[in-house]
């Protein structure tokens, strides 16, 4: 179309850029609200989450590491905020376009739907229902857009009909129900308020319904049996009770969370099954009833993430309840050569664990309980793996639904495909908790305290030094076994001023943490934790 034609299409009153943005945002809101509600009703994933998931799984490892480095455990929130920001920007743009070229805006809406569908496809989700919310979202968006455009004040249909120069698209889809199409600003405001209320209600319902729809298989209704031979209570003296020192048992709500899932999978324990197959003589499948009827065992195990930086807090300790993984594998009959246990979670994440580590007698568990309660959803309800001595990414599959015996040479798990080490035993590590980094303490008698861990080997000694002076042996608290961290404490006498404290541990094999600092990638950080603080 020529410039001349454009100029001859008068901009109707009220059809400002601001109105266009409002129309666009309301359209996006209607689409998202409808998507959330449909997803909840169809018990499937919201397309917004699905797009985020697809971005996580298909982004280059370097980008993911950067995101984790920049945003830490808030990386998911930032990603979701990013997805929403893109939707808002695209919606605003579509809205502005819709004022002049409604068909182009409707086409844009369909393209967005197609992009959502593509994301679902890339997610390799075998849930066919996942496409339904996308279809409903596009339909709701289109309906909202149509309604909003119709209600706009001064819809120039009379003029358009009469003026040959008007672009035919403008208002072409707009029927003329009333005598006066330009009902004024009021009509638009009312329609906008209606669309907003409807999408808000739909969105809120969609968020709220899943918790209501949860049935008898919910975490709340699962009661765990006791262990066959319950462990004695933790020995007195595991906890030195120093203010600021990590408690020996990490409360569930404070336990670090690391996974690739954007929304916490909420599994139904009555629907859950675990399939054990691959290079085994007797593949089988068990459900929760059967798992809970087998002799369960308790174990105190400290879980650690390979991404934990020196001094980091991606480590936590608790008492787990579960069925020994070794017994599970014996029941299946592992064939020779099957050196890898490839486990898969309900959301498709995979993990490769050396078979020998699970079979060598350590307390590797298919865990169902954590600190006396069913696993919290974010820690893998209803069942997860826990293998002492291995970083979480090669051992601790949450929401586990499949265990396949295979060879490392044949199959690669999620993080192994992304340059992280295939085998990753936990490195001997120690941390200063007290004083807090850059904290202030009273001069004179100063308490230093922290934790150290070397799961399966145990900690033999912890040494600290202040202001690069002599190494001083710290006192160790008690431990229930070799697989947990140990608290340590040391006293020193300090003048007012800035000070540093540094710690290193020696494990049960006599190995002392090296000073050399190595990054977490590919198989865990090394180096001594050093803090600075002020005595005053
Ligand atoms: N399904 C699933 N399980 C997973 C992961 C994951 O991304 N998905 N991450 C692993 C990693 S890297 C770690 S460190 C531990 C953390 O367990 P937590 O979140 O219960 O502390 O879970 C492991 N299990
Ligand atoms: Mo991890």
Structural descriptors:
Sulfite Oxidase, Chain A, domain 2, disordered N terminus, binds ligand MTE, 5-stranded mixed sheet, binds molybdenum atom, single chain, 12 helices, 5-stranded antiparallel sheet, 21% strand, alpha+beta, 536 residues, 2 domains
What can be said about this structure in brief?
It contains twelve helices and 19 strands. The chain has 536 residues and is α+β, with helices and mostly antiparallel strands. Helix 2 (17-41) packs parallel to helix 9.
Folded structure, characterized:
This protein is an alpha+beta fold and 536 residues long. It has 2 domains: 210 residues, no CATH class; 167 residues, Sulfite Oxidase, Chain A, domain 2 (Alpha-Beta Complex). The protein has 12 helices and 19 strands. Helix 3 crosses helix 6, helix 5 packs antiparallel against helix 6 and helix 7 runs antiparallel to helix 9. The structure holds the ligand Nc1nc2c(c(=O)[nH]1)N[C@H]1C(S)=C(S)[C@@H](COP(=O)(O)O)O[C@H]1N2 and molybdenum atom. Molybdenum atom (MO) binds next to loops. Keywords: Membrane, Transmembrane, Transmembrane helix. InterPro entries: Ig_E-set (IPR014756), OxRdtase_Mopterin-bd_dom (IPR000572), OxRdtase_Mopterin-bd_sf (IPR036374). This is Molybdopterin-dependent oxidoreductase.
């Amino acid at each position: 179309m020529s410039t001349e034609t454009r100029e001859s299409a008068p901009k109707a009153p009220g059809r400002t850029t601001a109105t266009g943005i409002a129309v666009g945002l309301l359209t996006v809101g209607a689409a998202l609200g409808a998507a959330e509600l449909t997803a909840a009703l169809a018990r499937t994933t919201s397309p917004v989450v699905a797009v985020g998931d697809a971005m996580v799984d298909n982004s280059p490892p370097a980008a993911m590491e950067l995101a984790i480095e920049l945003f830490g455990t808030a990386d998911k929130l930032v990603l979701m905020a990013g997805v929403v920001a893109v939707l808002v920007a695209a919606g605003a743009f579509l809205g502005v376009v819709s004022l002049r070229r409604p068909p182009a805006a409707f086409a844009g809406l369909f393209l967005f739907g197609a992009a959502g569908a593509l994301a679902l496809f890339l997610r390799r989700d075998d849930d066919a229902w996942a496409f339904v919310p996308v279809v409903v979202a596009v339909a709701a968006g289109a309906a909202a857009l149509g309604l909003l455009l119709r209600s706009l004040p001064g819809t120039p249909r009379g003029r358009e009909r009469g003026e040959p120069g008007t672009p035919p698209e403008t208002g072409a889809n707009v029927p003329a129900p009333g005598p006066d199409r330009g009902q004024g600003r009021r009509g638009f405001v009312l329609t906008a308020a209606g669309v907003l209320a409807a999408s808000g209600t739909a969105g809120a319902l969609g968020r709220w319904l899943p918790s209501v729809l949860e049935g008898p298989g919910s975490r709340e209704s699962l009661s765990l049996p006791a262990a066959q031979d319950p462990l004695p209570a933790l020995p007195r003296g595991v906890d030195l009770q120093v203010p600021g020192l990590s408690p020996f048992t990490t409360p569930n709500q404070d336990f670090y969370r690391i996974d690739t899932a954007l929304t916490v999978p909420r599994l139904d324990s009555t629907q859950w099954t675990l399939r054990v197959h691959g290079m085994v003589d007797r593949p089988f499948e068990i459900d929760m009833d059967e798992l809970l009827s087998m002799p369960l065992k308790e174990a105190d195990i400290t879980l650690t993430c390979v991404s934990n930086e020196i001094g980091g807090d991606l480590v936590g300790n608790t008492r787990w309840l579960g069925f020994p993984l070794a017994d599970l594998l014996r029941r299946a009959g592992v064939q020779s050569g099957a050196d890898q246990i490839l486990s898969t979670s309900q959301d498709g994440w995979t993990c490769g664990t050396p078979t020998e580590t699970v079979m060598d007698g350590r307390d590797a568990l298919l865990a169902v309980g954590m600190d006396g309660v069913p696993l919290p959803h974010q820690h893998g309800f209803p069942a997860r793996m826990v293998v002492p001595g291995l970083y979480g990414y090669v051992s601790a599959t949450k929401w586990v639904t499949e265990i396949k015996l295979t060879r490392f040479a044949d199959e690669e798990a999620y993080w192994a495909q992304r340059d992280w080490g295939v085998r990753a035993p936990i490195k001997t590590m120690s941390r200063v908790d007290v004083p807090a980094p850059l904290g202030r303490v009273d001069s004179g008698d100063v308490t230093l305290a922290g934790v150290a861990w070397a799961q399966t080997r145990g900690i033999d000694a912890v040494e600290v030094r202040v202001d690069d002076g002599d190494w001083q042996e710290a006192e160790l608290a008690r431990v229930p076994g070799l697989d947990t961290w140990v608290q340590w404490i040391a006293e020193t006498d300090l003048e007012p001023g800035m000070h540093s404290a540094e710690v290193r541990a020696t494990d049960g094999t006599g190995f002392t943490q090296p000073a050399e600092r190595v990054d977490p990638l590919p198989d865990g950080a090394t180096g001594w934790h050093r803090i600075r603080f002020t005595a005053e």
